[in-house]
């Protein structure tokens, strides 16, 4: 009897405190939102929305220095800002949930003194974005750095605090100074000025702190039109026509807002028309079109002729390639084919190689390449399959994206110097940093294979090669062999484990993969232009003695009318005869380090 009484007392106390807690929320110093519905999703979403509305009513005046008032209504703008938090912190609140005769009741609440929790969660995301911007800045990816610095400013203006601290630095003042530094210290140098058929082609070297700029987007004026173009690995091409061919100088504007791409970060898109966004006039530049004196070309110089085209290759490398002459000859032949952009020429030149025929047709069809220079600095490196030549510059045009981009090809040759494959490269500075981080020759060989794979992966997007992507995201492990990918039954058991409650379940990864491939097939079939690049790449080992690598990337994707950005993770094993790729996870628009999938998520059992 005594036990029964204790149980009844505990039940009564639990009910009492639940009821008291609910009443306290409604009468105390809490923001709350509640809703009843026979649809649980509607009850949850409406309760969250009402919580956001109640918060914004009280604190709208706090935002007056940071928001754009809509029709003089500060409260409406504040409400939009608070609603943007629902994608992060508000959804992590634990609601009071009740079910009564098929009706769902949700009550979300947060104490007024705990409102800063919302701001702190937003600050964590801002700091993650800032850290990525810093990585890109240090790698001379100025376009990525400017974009994420500016997006961080947009998000900072959703926090009504004068100082946003990151360590000992105030991001409110630090980020604008970073942006201005990029504008002021970027140098354009005209290195080639060629006029033919009433078209004037200008080629510039672009440097920052004396080093080639990995990426920079800018707009240049030509007559009454403006053209959007992209510097890549230190070079860019601008074309002038009509009366513009006589220009003695040229006005440009360095891109920093990237308003068309703002959807890549959900909260930035939500806040774009609500918060105040600064303008930086330092981005405007007038460039005198006076050609610089040509630099002396050191190193070995080779000249090859293919058809009517003449190409000079030179290198500053110390190591010698015994078949360099053959490689230069094959490279010149390929460049001539791309320059002519003739399908029949491709079929004739590579009649015995169906793979190359298809690959080159896709490069021409989807990327509209044009040869930039007849004199090219290249590097020839030995690889597991033979040799590679880096980097052949091209100017590629994506009309529906309003983008002209300098791109580079890496050409793969067998041991005899015969061309085997051609792919678009990652940033050169990124490549060099990844190779320089190697602790020994074995790790260097393995990293070079990883880089080779990433360049094949990038090219698959630019060439819309869905077969390659389907193989990459298959359930089986895949091997990298030469120019093709093959399946292999994985010899090891790999276990996925969540590091915290914010990370996705394994079911998310599996469903995400299926949804990704279905969507990508539709995009490939419907979009006129597609461009993809990696803003950052990080390669790490499972442990010091392991030959298992984790590869993390921030992938930037643009297609006609759609942009996306997210976190790509690969798990690659070099302990067998052939390198195997086991895990490929894709998390679109994910910035929180707590939720990103990484090496620590995987336990290798076999």
Question: How would you summarize this macromolecular structure in one to three sentences?
Answer:
Helix content is 35%, strand content 32%. The chain is an alpha+beta fold and 606 residues long. Among the domains are: 24-116, Endonuclease I-creI, CATH 3.10.28.20; 296-425, Nuclear Transport Factor 2, Chain: A (Roll); 440-606, Nuclear Transport Factor 2, Chain: A (Roll), CATH 3.10.450.
Describe the model.
- There is one protein chain.
- The chain is α+β, with helices and mostly antiparallel strands.
- The protein has 14 helices and 29 strands.
- Among the domains are: 93 residues, Endonuclease I-creI (Roll), CATH 3.10.28; 130 residues, Nuclear Transport Factor 2, Chain: A, CATH 3.10.450; 167 residues, Roll (Nuclear Transport Factor 2, Chain: A).
- The strands form seven sheets. Strands 9, 10, 12, 13, 16, 18, 19, 20 and 21 form a nine-stranded mixed sheet that branches. A six-stranded antiparallel sheet has the order 23-22-28-27-26-25, with helices on both faces. Strands 6, 7, 8 and 11 form a four-stranded antiparallel sheet that branches.
- Strand 9 and strand 10 form a beta hairpin.
- Helix 5 runs antiparallel to helix 6.
- It starts with a helix and ends with a strand.
- The N terminus is likely disordered.
